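Researcher: For the record, we're logging two predictions in this thread. I'll number them. Prediction 1 follows.
Model: Prediction 1, sequence and structure:
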Amino acid sequence: MQCPDEIAEVLLRILNVGLLRIRKSGSEGHAEECETEADHIHNLPAILQNYSPELLEYYWNVERAGFLSTEAGRSSRSFQAEWRHLQRLMDEHGVNYHG
């Protein structure tokens, strides 16, 4: 199934921000932060390539939640606007998620 365009746009922006954060952390020698960032975004290309509501739900409930449980996730505001936008789109598309 093709990823809805509006969801794809948000996921691409999240990927872009995540990759920029990985590049910055890597240039500063912070390998653990790179790993945390990569864990957060590494499955987003699969959602874009082979969309399913279940994959998006997994990203939201597991990967995003896992990222938020880390120091990098708790201190980051980089993704907040995109997550709010994605949450609205998930509501519109009937994707189940936990807050």
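Researcher: Logged. Prediction 2.
Model: Prediction 2, sequence and structure:
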Amino acid sequence: MSRIIRKSFLLSCLLLITSLQIEAQQVLPLKDQAKVIDEILDERLNLLLPRLMEKTGIDMWVMITREYNEDPIVKTFLPATWISARRTTMLVFYYNPETKEYTKSAVARYNVGNTIKAAWDMTKYPDQYEALMAIIQKHQPKKIGINTSASFGHADGLDHTAYEQFMQKLPVKFKTGVVSAEPLAVAWLETRTEREMQIYPQVIEISKAIIAEGFSSKVITPGITSSEDLVWWYRQKINQLGLSTWFHPSVEIQRNDATVFDHLTAFSNKGYDAKNIIQQGDLLHVDFGITYLRLNSDIQEHAYVLKPGEKDAPDYLKNALAAGNRLQDILTNQFALLKSGNAILKDALAQAKKEGINATIYTHPIGSHGHAAGPTIGIWDMQNGVPGSGDYPMYYHTAYSIELNAAVEIKEWKKSIRIMLEQDGYYDQSGFRYISGRQTKLHLVGNASWQ
């Protein structure tokens, strides 16, 4: 066997091992996933929610949603076996900070999971709203939180019809106590528990393993594979592993040509065009995420396609990646308790400019949703701040997708490229940390004969 053939064989074996390692990641069977999801939900309901209700001063939280028009928050309260709401689903949580009385009720015909018990006596209250009013009368809440919000779509899930029916049935004495549940809703969505943070590294590691396999010669054949082929390989791989995704991946090519970077096209489908065929010498970028155990990942990384005779990426591309890493540090160094997303954005951009980095920052919370509730730290086309969600302050025990890009001038290509990075991290009393590391070296795509 020739040296080249031996090297090709060994590389094939390594790629097969990598694939098997991804398959062997701890992606639980669906039944086991459901068990974990329900355990975490019970823990959040019994330990986290009453603490958040006391913190926000909302002693009753009423959620009303209908099948096929689900409130995005209500869905985070449903057990794993509930794919959606059923008919009209009403959930009521009451917490008295003085007596510590805490009740979890479903105005429904059956229990909602293990913890939320059915509380609708249909013989006494044929009208579902009358049953809801009976619970309100029993507890005499001072503040009734409902899911309406101008700043967060996640917290604005009460539809107009349900709102009108609720307010029509609600006794006059309680009407002045009806408030937006936004502070409680956002806190519920953004706060990660200790159990969730033990699981989150697995979500990220599985994501990164899939990205690495896609950025390899097993998947990419220069001159044949297109960016769209790679996108659909990622979608298929997610499906094969029994996972799901919350957005369609995208793959971007930057190369030594006259094409100018554009935000609008960088994260959109490219179609099957000859210019989107991956070539040697290309800088590749992927935007990729999965959903596993009701936690989401959102990751962007880069790869370089080796030319014949190359064993590593050119220094100018490695230096560009280092500039992107420095921008990450500049941003996360601005994280501080109760500091707003807009203040973090302003200070990070000022420091980046001082260091000569042409920066665009569009970082967001992550967790129960991919683009989750919490402080928005810029949007790519809103670098002067984001009204509403950008004014929201940062709290401990929250996860963030550190999403940004650094424009770097590459004299060898006679143009500027964008290092687009996104890595998921966690913020608590110890400061900020990446949940499972971050990319500091380019993925290398190439076969043994080139190296």
